[in-house]
Amino acid sequence: MTATPDSRPEPLLVATALRKAYGPTPALDGADFTIRSGEVVAVMGPSGSGKSTLLHCLAGIVRADSGEVRYRGHELSRMSDAERSALRRTDFGFVFQFGQLVPELTCLENVAMPMRLAGARRRAAEAQAAEWLERLEVGDSAGKRPGEVSGGQGQRVAVARALVGGPRVIFADEPTGALDSLNGERVMRLLTDAARDTGAAVVLVTHEPRVAAYSDREVVVRDGKSRDMERVA
Ligand code: ADP
Fold it and tell me: What pTM does this model have?
């Protein structure tokens, strides 16, 4: 066996020299990014710097104009749309700022939905969904609709939904942006604890240092360019 320079696991998701323009101004101008299993990486930077665009490119939602994104060695741009959609269903979980739960469904049904879409039977999916709701300390909300729970509870339901299928990567775009600091910290603690327990990687877009403090590492995006930061203790 050849010796590796360090004992860290192989990179899970690697982006190299990503460029993406909307009109004349570049949203990404040569951004690089690497994340390994079990890592929580905060993508920081001012508004409009390209953080969400980077997340969308990493998740295969947006196609970069140039550069590449490799997930477990496979280049996303070489996959068909169907393959990329399947990957997002099976390997990726998503948490956004708000508006992600289906209002007509109960919280339990919302969390069970990714598993149902992946072909699981209703009873099995709902049993697992109930476990995740408990784990996210929001078991009482199972029978309620999203409109009947608080913002903090709704975000914990959304985190449960992102985690239920056992994703390898969780993409979280300003997951606490609509919450007060106490609820935000609770969501971050539960999200990062659950991810570390399951070995999932978390790509966390935030402009709040207090939220980024839950990460292992920070990548700062400025004018579409990214830079790895050493955590200043
Ligand atoms: P951030 O997440 O850091 O706020 P974004 O990635 O959302 O930054 O945006 C980076 C730049 O790209 C901004 O100038 C933004 O206006 C532009 N942009 C992002 N998405 C689109 C889009 N779908 N259409 C046009 N311009 C966009």
Answer: 0.92
Q: How close is the Cα of 14 to the center of ligand 1, in Å?
A: 21
Angstrom distance (rounded) from CA 50 to CA 221: 7
More confidently predicted of 47 and 7 = 47
Atom 13 (ligand 1) nearest CA: 48
Q: Could you tell me where the beta strands, DSSP code E, fall in the chain?
A: 11-22, 25-36, 40-44, 66-71, 74-75, 92-95, 169-173, 201-205, 217-222, 225-229
CA distances 1 to 4, 6, Å, are 9, 14
Query: Of 146, 56, 69, 65, which is closest to residue 100 (Cα–Cα)?
Result: 146
Give the confidence band of 231 by pLDDT, cuts at 50, 70, 90.
low
The alpha carbon of residue 20 and the mean position of all alpha carbons in its chain are separated, in whole angstroms, by 20
Q: Are strands 40-44 and 225-229 parallel, antiparallel or unpaired?
A: unpaired
For 156-187, the pLDDT digits (tens) are 999 999 999 899 999 999 999 989 999 999 99
Burial 21-43 (b: 16+ CB within 10 A, else e): eeeeebbbbebbbbbbbbbbbbb
- Cβ neighbors of 166 (< 8 A, separation 6 or more) are 198, 200
- Beta carbon of 51 within 6 Å of any ligand 1 atom: yes
Please tell me the distance between residue 2's alpha carbon and the centre of ligand 1 in angstroms. 43
Distance of CA 82 to the CA centre of its chain: 20
